[in-house]
Each structure stands twice: as C-alpha cells, then as structure tokens.
Amino acid sequence: MSLIELRHVRKAFGDNRIFEDVSLAIRAGEKLTLIGGSGTGKSVLLKLLIGLLAPDEGEIWFDGERIDEFNEDAFIKVRRRIGMLFQGAALFDSMSVYENVAYGLAEQGEMDEPAMRARVAEVLEWVGLPGIEDRRPAELSGGMKKRVGLARAVAPGPEVLLYDEPTTGLDPINVLRISELIIELNARLGMTSIVVTHDMPSAFLISDRIAVLLDKRIALVDTVEGVQNAEDPRIHEFVHAMTDAPRRTAGR
Predict the structure, then answer these.
(1) What's the CATH code, domain 1-81+160-166+186-252?
(2) Sign of CA pseudo-dihedral 229, 235, 236, 238
C-alpha cells in the first residue's frame, strides 16, 4: 500500500505548465529519488506534498487522506509528520545551532527545555556534529550547514523527510557524507525519504527507486538498475549525461 500518492496532478504558473498529468505512488519506508532536467518541477512536487502549493487539478493522498483539499489549519497535522531539508539548509543566521535545531520542537510545544536540549544533542550526534550547539551558522562550512539543517529536519521525528537538492554546492567528500546520512537516518528512524537531486551518483547510491520527470509527467519509476538501463532514449541520454557530468567537471 502506498503512503503517498499523486493522481493525475496538473500544475501551472500562468502560461507555464509544469505538470500535465503527474501520477506517482510512494511506499512507506522507501528511499525514492526524483530526477529530471532543470525547470521540470521537481521542487514544485515537494511543495505540493507539504501544502506550500496546491495542484490545479488532480489529487494528493497521504496515509489514506486526500490532503490537497485541506485548508491551512488541517495541513498543520500533515506538516508534523513530513519534514523537509530545504536547498541551502535555510538556517536562521541570527540563531545559534541549538536554536535552529530546536526550532521545530519549540513550535510543537511538547517538550520542556531539558528535553529539547537532550534531543538537539542526540540529533547533532547522529549527523556527526556533537557539541556545536553554541555556534552560529556563519561559523560553519557549507557541509556543516547542510548537516545542521538535516538535524533540524529530523529532530521532531517526522515519518517522511523531503530533501530538496541536499548535495548541491558540496565537494565530493561532503556529497558522500550527506548521501550516507540519508541512508542511515532512513534506517534509524524508519522514515520514508523523497530526494530531489541532479547528482546521479548520489541518486544511485541512496535510492530504492528513482522517478524520472519528463515532458510534464512521470515517465518512469524503477530501481536504480532499471533506470540505468532504460529503453527510452531520452531517459538513457539524460541519466548518462548527468552521471558523466561530475567526471567532466573534475577533469577541467
């Protein structure tokens, strides 16, 4: 049974049609990566799942409930179950690492200060950054900011975690570190992970399945091997061009 399902979703911004007929079923506990060219709507799809955008047509289901018809108040309970790591980590510069990571916990209002401090310490340990609670984002490297953002996303204990370009702008060592953390946290917390990325080596490493956005639709959903060996020449060309791109860049 699917935990999340998009059924015949259409979305446009003015005359710019993003999705014509997007249907996708996501299984509980899996790591699914969404790939496609720039401007194909990968990040739009994530925003649809957490109610930051609404579809023009079609249905979005989460755990047996149709959520695209929810109002803002009804979406609060959905957002408690779905976390998101935004591109660039989106940390608050005026806050300490502790305040950033505890932000979602404080919003929920279910923990006292000692419990929040213990939880923040725990999730920072998970991402390999123990003891940095008093630092400011300006003191952190790009890779550390991503990991703090990841700690903030998992701190409230979401059932689903959305990753918007989690490895963008990182060096190869940090790309591997973040990719391994996605795998580890998915297993540790029993989460469902949905990852948007242009980084094909990372996608191949972390994914149980890969969904390909093409021509305003989901053109293929398959295992890593299935996507690598796709018969559709457009998918084959895109996947292998994106896989070879880091090698060409490294050779310059």
Answers:
(1) 3.40.50.300
(2) negative
